[in-house]
Amino acid sequence: MNVVPGFAVGLDFGTGSVRALVVRLSDGAEVGTGVAPYAHGEGGVILSAHDPHFARQHPADYLEGAATATAGALAAARDADPGFSPDLVRGLGVDTTGSTPLPVDAAGAALALGPAFADHPAALAWLWKDHTSAREAERVTHLARDLAPQALAGVGGVYSSEWYWAKLLRCAETAPGVMAAAHDWVEIADWLPATFAGREAEGPRGICASGHKLMYHPERGWPPRALLAALHPELERIGERLRTREVLDGARAVGTLTPEWASRLGLPPGAAVATGAFDAHLGAVGAGVREGTLVKVMGTSTCDLMVARPAADFPHIPGLCGVVPGSVLPGLLGLEAGQSAVGDLFAWWSRVCGADLPALEREAAALAPGESGLLALDWNNGNRTVLVDTRLSGLLLGQTLQTRPHEVYRALVEATAFGARVIVERLEEYGVAVERVVAAGGIAERSPLVMQTYADVLGRPVFVSRSSQTSALGAAVAAAVAAGAYPTFEAAQDAMCGVRGAPYRPSPGAARVYDDLYGLYRELHDAFGRPDAPTPNLAHVMKRLLGVQGRARAVSA
Predict the structure, then answer these.
(1) pLDDT tens, position by position, 32-63
(2) SS3 sequence, 20-55?
(3) Angle at alpha carbon of residue 334, lines to 128 and 246, rounded to 5°
(4) Separation between Cα atoms, residue 182 and residue 94, nearest integer Å
(5) Distance CA 313, CA 409 (A)
């Protein structure tokens, strides 16, 4: 067996920080990590006291954070592995949040880095969780249904306020000076690799962001001119700019590190720079995604990723965040779904009730399924899949004067698991078999309660990714392929990725209880979330919850 020499670096640009990971190519050993929190805003997010839906980031944080985090990772790698040297790094990969578009000038520099717009909030990066564009997203959806139904079908049939065109339309209508000054708008998943490779003025784009958020398709191209012109002349202008850009899948390198960036990062000039992608998509790569495997990248939100063989009759799956060729693994369709609040939901409740999460987890884990008597909808940050509606909100049902904080926490955990089951059922309804579930991220590692609940609700084993940095590892896998160390993503995954030990397996008794509760969850889900649902009669729901609670308490007594 040939041993692949050298190392790769993965840069994971998250919501609150950038993380650098040094990975040995031969076996995926993670020999060094560095983290740099973003300097601006609260936890790296610039907020507004006047608008709870506002969430931006400063592009300087990405550039400075990359240098700081990489320096820390290289120092740690030197200490951990006597055989390591920065000169042995063959490639750099990048994953980021998304959709997080950034306005740039003709040279590809962020407007916020120049004096004219240094203090203008619209010149910042519009973070994925910025939902100020809800009305604009509705307009995109409405017009696209008439003018470009095929393009809209490729992103699940409904355009989200989290995504590129809705945010650009919002800027055009509320900050026309910034919009006029912007030569282009670039997803940071594309801007950062291009910057590191000195190609920011050319602006090559990755299929991941372009396909899932910009309505691009390799066969159909970019959204039709008629749609963009109907939305706003400035969007038509940006669309014309996009039509000149090269679109790359993950098997293609953006270029190589410039001498300037090699010096700033402490890496060898000429190291390959991989095409960028979103954190969840490269997280799926790092978790070993294959056909039939659903990877749940679980953090503040959850992204669900699968891959499938291309086929002329492959269905458009309503409510998904896109079915995009090559967005996860080159040569396969990338399928994206997700939930807008998971870790954020648990953290919110911890803040509200004044109890720390470990304490809530311990007390909630002592409850039997159904014992709380509560049922929740997990829409505190809207619904991403399958309803695609950011204007939905949370719900808690079944409270009494005896309800305690850990019981609510358990209900919220269960609600996110029920939301995950809705996604699995939607995939399987359209013929995509979910044969294996792999969870990745901090929640998957730290919360046995969450993982066991998901196994019980989904009725199937749930594996946990071996790496605690799956997105950064996936970025390193992309770097390995870009550098020519492995011929394909699958070959690199075989060497560099894996899962931990035994999976969480469903308990038959718990699964039966959750089948009952899930039926009630679906009634609430459809009654509050589906405008086309028949008028429901929910008079039985509270009584059935009491029945489930009574049986659970009798069993646990």
Answers:
(1) 999 999 999 999 999 999 999 999 999 999 99
(2) EEEEECCCCCEEEEEEEECCCCECCEECCCCCCCCC
(3) 75
(4) 24
(5) 43
**CA count, 13 A, side-chain hemisphere, 464:** 22
Cβ–Cβ under 8 Å, residues 17 and 39: no
d(CA 313, CA 135): 33
Rg (CA), the chain: 23
Residues making up the chain, counted from first to last:
557
- Rounded CA separation 493/282 (Å): 11
Are the beta carbons of 23 and 31 closer than 8 angstroms?
yes
How buried is residue 129: exposed, middle or buried, by Cβ count under 10 Å (0-12/13-18/19+)? buried
Q: Is the pLDDT of residue 238 over 90?
A: yes
Query: Tokens in use for 130?
Result: 């910025």
How far is 212 from 280, CA to CA, in rounded Å? 12
What would the two tokens of residue 229 be?
């012109």
- Lay out the sheet containing 302-308: strands in order across: 323-325, 333-339, 302-308, 293-298, 436-440, 462-464
Cβ burial of 106 (10 Å; 0-12, 13-18, 19+) is exposed
Give the number of other CB atoms < 10 A from CB of residue 141: 17
Q: To the nearest 10°, the Cα dihedral for 499, 504, 505, 511?
A: -140
Taking the CB of residue 232, how many other CB atoms lie within 10 A of it?
A: 20
Which one, of 309, 241, 222, 289, lies nearest residue 497 by Cα?
A: 289
Mean pLDDT of 265-279: 97
- For 82, residues 6+ apart whose C-beta sits below 8 A from its C-beta are none
Q: What is the dihedral of CA 8, 188, 70, 195, to 10 degrees?
A: 80
Cis before 99 (ω within 30): yes
